[in-house]
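Example record for the data management plan.
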Amino acid sequence: MTAYTVESPAKDAFNKLSTNLFAFGYQKIAKKAFFAMKPDDAHSLMIDFCRAAGHNKPLMWTLRQMLDYTDPILETTVMGVPFNNPFGLTAGLDKDCDLPTVLDAAGFGFETVGSTTSRPCPGNPRPWFHRLPQYHSMVVHAGLANDGSRTVIRRAEKAWTQCNEMRMSISLARTNDRLCGDLDEGIEDYCTSLRRAAGRTDIIEINVSCPNTMAGEPFTDDPRNLDRLFTALDGIDHPQPLLVKMPLNKTWPQMRDLLDVLADHKVRGVSLANLQKDRTGLDVPKDWQGGLSGLPCQGDSDELVAQVYREYGQRFVIAGIGGVFTAEDAYRKIRNGASIVQFVSSLMYLGPQNIAALKRGLAQLLRLDGFSSVAEAVGVDA
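Corresponding structural encoding:
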């Protein structure tokens, strides 16, 4: 077995050096180039580059040697799934499953692909993205653009069988197009994708909280609608554990009503939470449609994770999402009750090497506080 990075002084020193070099190169060169482009164009270029780079085996081997920090204290088992580390890419960036090879080489613990829908979906009219660098945030209005779950799940399954160590999750949502009908049509949309996904990844996420769709969010607007959806989903066999992507901007009584519904169904965990809708106190142009990612999500997400853990920690596993830029950010979510942590905005603002910095930093924080695993720290502050 290859030695853990932390157990090899030479590997550890090389990882520190290469991570710092990546950070310098990203901030001084790549980020400036990306930020000189329109956000939509930069996103498309990044996806194209990573898709091509993933086919270059020597390049992927080099990336792994440079960035993949490994440490036994980061290994954790959640919902019966073993993870090399608790860090994952959240849904929304890799809509069509183009990035697994690169993310695996960089050392991610898992990736959530999608969200994908039963029918191919063109998404909302462009632009889909606006940058808010003063808040380390993006305004996101993509509207679930993707190639359709028949195609995307097939790619995710291939990645699942080929990834070296990274776990694969697939996020399923309702198609956002003019064919959307009544609630029954929406339920069947989810059911179609779940049938396709059964047995083909490590985890399945059901996204009921996308804020940028024609049909709105009927399954979180009324608990009875959510109950109807998961009654139908309960009838579909799938070996993977099921997570549910929840909205951020609900009152606690509203969120409790939704969680009480999910507790009666075959749901193992909740992803907390989706994009920030509240722009209070933020300087955001009114004509920029969409939800906010990154730091504007952080405080509300941290509070929601802690509240859900306090009241439902014995029932649901929690995936913490929103405003994770540093190891301290991730550690706070874990101490509040998250067993795994997802992020995306820090890749754009800090660079892809930040996954190594997050893992190294979290391992140090765990040891500093006397923990021997991630699981020991989950919920200690809630």
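Summary line stored alongside the record: The chain is about 45% helix and 15% strand.
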